[in-house]
Specification:
With 439 residues, the protein is mostly helical. Helices cover 51% and strands 5% of the residues. It folds into 2 domains: 215 residues, no CATH class; 159 residues, no CATH class.
Amino acid sequence: MANGEGIKKQEGPLQSPINPQESEWIISIKTKLEQASNDDVASSWSKKCIYRIPHFLRDHGIGEDKAYVPQVVSIGPYHRGKRGLLAMERHKWRALHYMLKLRRQSVKVYIEAMQELEDKARACYEGNLSLTSNEFVEMLVLDGCFMLEFFRGYTEGFENLGYDRNDPIFAMRGMMYSIRRDMMMIENQIPLFVLESLISLQLSDPSKKTIVVDLAIIFFDPLSPIDEPLTARQLTKLESSLHTNSKGFHPLSDQAGLHCLDVFRRSLLRKGPKEVPRHWFRKWSRRNLVTDHRRTQLIHCVTDLKESGIKFKKRKTDRFWDIKFQNGVLHIPRLLVHDGTKSLFLNLVAFEQCHLNCTNDITAYVVFMDNLIDSANDVNYLHYCGILEHWLGNDAEVADMFNHLCQEVVFDINDSFLSKVSEEVNSYYNHRWNAWRAS
């Protein structure tokens, strides 16, 4: 009995209420667990497609932050209201005014359409947005119509949309370049389905929504790293889709795009690189997933390859990624590097890093070129071969650009569409090097 009573006395304090401070702590933990249970990861995360740049990418490179942050115009919620971008807001309202005036439409129709898409559009963004329902819907209408005015004005002519030929925004080429660059940033996007809904209202024809992809490809084509832009025939096909009931020509006719950055990426890849077997690099590297710049070495640099007898030749194609190696010759398509190339590649690579349902084809190409280009001499020789054309200050700037594009990037070297080419080049290099050493 004594032992039994002793046990009851020990159990008594455990059954009594805990102190108030501990009670608040337990309640907060339960609240967090309840919130976690309501967070349906499978359904919410799968809808995200417009990401914030991860800190490991933003904070690493020198001057990279400017390549990710819009300098002239904000599109979407992430940079809305920032001081340096407020000057463009009145021009957004002016664009909306011109559009409604030309079409003789009421803004109420657009607001109601965006209210129906609000939840779907919010799900595309990362984290909790501070915008109220009204603010978010207003942003979709204002930013979406602003983008469409640029798309259509660039193709049809801004004067045909009611703008003066001396308009400070919708006529200046310099401003056009800056706005185009900002619209290609991963943090500066709105969902493609929003643009499709808006243009179907503008043209009073739901079947015309696919024209957005056509217009986006035309508008962003000057940013392309391909030295051969869209042909006159391709432009004619794209422009004719504005005035006919045809679906129009574009490389995404059988796919649903996410936003303009995704559309442009797919247009660059077109019938893009196919996945290759993951086998050969496992023999060469102890780690497959690499973030260390030194362990992303797929092949040697141009200078080393040239000394081993490998030749370089420009490949005539409009697909900058379509690299081949045959009989000791590395055939590389011509690449144009301009002021917007760095920002374009950084944002494309960031998108591939963030979006799970996405290949790493652009990243693979950039890593491959980074390996080839180790110094200004490598850039100079590729230019001599007609493979690389640039508008930067000097060859050293180009080399520095490529050497900083993929720092801290997580890259599976077994999942590169260029792994077979790299294997062939390395095999040829090792054979020639060993033969040279033996002689």
